[in-house]
Design goal:
Chain A: Keywords: Membrane, Transmembrane, Transmembrane helix. The complex is a heterodimer of chains A (58) and B (367). Chain A has 58 residues and is mainly α. Chain A has 3 helices and no strands. The N and C termini of chain A lie far apart (38 Å). Chain B folds into 3 domains: 78 residues, Helix Hairpins (Orthogonal Bundle), CATH 1.10.287; 145 residues, Immunoglobulin-like, CATH 2.60.40.420; 108 residues, Cytochrome c-like domain (Cytochrome Bc1 Complex, Chain D, domain 2, Orthogonal Bundle). In chain B, helix 2 packs antiparallel against helix 3, helix 6 packs across helix 9 and helix 9 packs across helix 10. The chains are: A mainly alpha (58), B alpha+beta (367). At the A-B interface, loops of A face helix 3 of B.
Chain lengths: 58, 367
Amino acid sequence: MWRVIKSVLAALIGVQKNQQREEDFSSDKPLAFVIAAIFVALLFVLLLIGVALLAAKV
Amino acid sequence: MRSLKHWSVVSFLVPTASYAWNMPVGVTDVSGDIYRLHMTIFWICVAIGLLVFGAMFYSLFRYRHAKGAKAAHFHENTLVEVLWTAIPVLILIAMAVPATATLKQMYNPSDADLDVMITGQQWRWRYEYMGENVAFISSLSTPQVQINGEEARGETYLLDVDNPLVLPVNRKVRFLMTSDDVIHSWWVPELAVKQDAVPGFINENWVRINEPGIYRGQCAELCGMDHGFMPVVVHAMEQEAFDKWFAERKAAAEKEISGIDRDWKLAELMERGQATYEAICASCHQPDGGGSPPAFPALAGNEQLIADQAWHLDRVLNGVSGAAMPAFRNTLNPVELAAVVTYTRNAWGNDAGDVVQPLTVQELIAQ
């Protein structure tokens, strides 16, 4: 679980170890990555909305 | 031929009162903020550029092939990659904070002391002091002989208008910008305002000018033939001088309205009409009424125009759909419309001999 999230976060900033990448791609549960990625992307959007709202208020 | 000459001058001209290399500090608090923000970010970019290119050129020189340098072959370095991602993100965030603060200020037109509606038209600006019954058109006033190259260019070549926008200093003035035809852009560098005027939309902006003075700008959105001939001039005055000017304007507007229902003489209308013609119509139909066919038909010697007053009025009031001729029913007042129609019917050898009264025009507009 933690490894999936770590990989998704690494993908978010676009930096990943090659060894880690190969391990991820040989994983037999790709769906876990997809779901985690959508979840993290949503969180990122919410974070941006929060920052924008905060900036509009200050 | 005339229009060709017109164009060749335009394409190579640089205003004499040209802008400096850098953006101006300007005369409003916001323009100063924008300038400082611009300089801060400029120096950040300079520092980053020096660092990055310095490192690059040093490496190129120090580890050059001639000295027997061998390339290191490795695939990745996660630490370095994370660093060169994180540092730019931090720099961007650090720049976004003051930039956002300035943007918020720029786009906060609330609590204005005065509202001015700015309407772009091909090719002039119209200013209306909202709720005050003061409105006028601001057209280029650079003499035609300078544009034709027959006379030396003045200091403010193509940056002069007949009726400048007059504003008080130290007052928050809100601008409401729109357009009657195509997209224009109202730009005065010293006020740090450059805002598109879009037909069918109203954009907001505002200024609080700190120093009295004359500030000049231009239309900044390509809007057709005379795009370079619709400058913006703002006179910023002390409150007292502004109040005096404003009272005069109001009185003149009232006099104008009361002038509608009296009978005007031919000579009066001709004089008034000539002024209106030269400010509004001459850019297309030419000062001598010769036009630039086929886009802009000649008015001098135009038989249909001379023979048919109703047709002539309809063209001026309602425009010509599908052609460049705009409708002037809301742009000019009845006196100006009556005068300019009378003028074009009787100038340059046109011999209609009739007089169009402002009252007639007002009734036509009301229909």
